[in-house]
Amino acid sequence: MARPKKNRLVESPPSNCSFKPVGTPASGLEQVNLSLDEYEAIRLADYLSLGHAEAAEEMEISRSTFTRLIERARKKMAEFLIEGRLLQIEGGNIHFKGNRIQCSDCGHLFEANFNSALKECPICGSDKLIDLAGSFGHGRCCRNHKKR
Ligand SMILES: [Zn+2]
Ligand SMILES: [Zn+2]
To answer: What is the distance between the alpha carbons of residues 29 and 138, in angstroms, rounded to a whole number?
Structure first.
């Protein structure tokens, strides 16, 4: 019986979403897709070293769901490393808690919330800003997402 999937919360969009081995053209590589919730599981458990219970709470999922999620994510990271795949971060039933904006001129990355209407880079003044949540198809949906 299929239960409707609840949206999981991800702190903010990753600044890089595509990785590959140096020197191998992407066209010759098999792709492995890491969903945004799998990415967040790795960030919380392996990068920030949170315990599973705490990490699960951050994402608003159960501890057992988190454990399955992190195991799947680690398996994919291992495939990427060992087999030299193309890694793409995309998809997943998620919403972001906050957004990040990147300046395409100076590369500066800054935190933003979904209500701010930033027009130019605070560092170099460029108006070529990339809305990272927007590049994953998120934004308004995250702002409207009601917390439990
Ligand atoms: Zn800039
Ligand atoms: Zn969203």
So the answer is: 28
